Amino acid sequence: ETGVTQTPRHLVMGMTNKKSLKCEQHLGHNAMYWYKQSAKKPLELMFVYNFKEQTENNSVPSRFSPECPNSSHLFLHLHTLQPEDSALYLCASSLGLSGTPNSPLHFGNGTRLTVT
Amino acid sequence: AQSVTQLGSHVSVSEGALVLLRCNYSSSVPPYLFWYVQYPNQGLQLLLKYTTGATLVKGINGFEAEFKKSETSFHLTKPSAHMSDAAEYFCAVREPLDYKLSFGAGTTVTVRA
């Protein structure tokens, strides 16, 4: 079992729907991340949280809204998405942002999102 | 700011042959370097990392990589490919004082029987 669990694994939604992606880590990490993986493109960092505080919003459209209630859980709330938002959304965690720059990211298996 | 270039988006090798995946980076200071592997329908898994010390790093599944500062490279190799090595491989770079990880575009490896 991966230390980072994402649900659901697959999601199909219409452009007017509202849905949420969930991520949970059991590694005792303090930093959590959302990445977007589209075909033929490098991974795009979307959001970063450190000790529940958002430290990075990489110019992500407001139709994506993250939430981090505690260091173990991370959500990505979706509303009025566009077809180009279809992608694999990956959650990751790491020990922290400062003092551990060589700490690798641990990834979940992702949510495959299709916007119709 | 750092950037990562992976030469070749697709590499095809015969089973038992050498696997060589190339990664070059640009960074203002010697960075921390990582290789990740992604199997179909899964997330990324750490193969190996270089931080400081020995420049030849050994990872899981028989992979290794060598950090060459003069060439700003961190190429990944495996002496003998196995069918289970078919996956996508990502090189990633992080500068020592920055938490952000920059990924290359990835190289897909196929292994021929």
> Biggest interface, and residues per chain?
A-B, 26 and 27 residues
First-residue to last-residue Cα separation of chain A = 31 Å
Order of helices and strands of chain A: EEEEEEEEEEE
Strand content of chain A: over 45%
Uncertain residue segments of chain A: none
Task: Quickly count the helices of chain B.
Answer: 0
Describe this structure in words.
The complex is a heterodimer of chains A (116) and B (113). In chain A, 0% of the residues lie in helices and 55% in strands. Chain A has 116 residues and is mainly β. The N and C termini of chain A lie far apart (31 Å). The mean pLDDT of chain A is 91. By secondary structure, chain B is mostly beta strands. Chain B has strands at 3-7, 10-14, 19-26, 32-38, 44-50, 56-58, 64-68, 73-78, 87-94, 102-103, 107-112. In chain B, strand 7 (64-68) and strand 8 (73-78) form a beta hairpin. The relative contact order of chain B is 0.34.
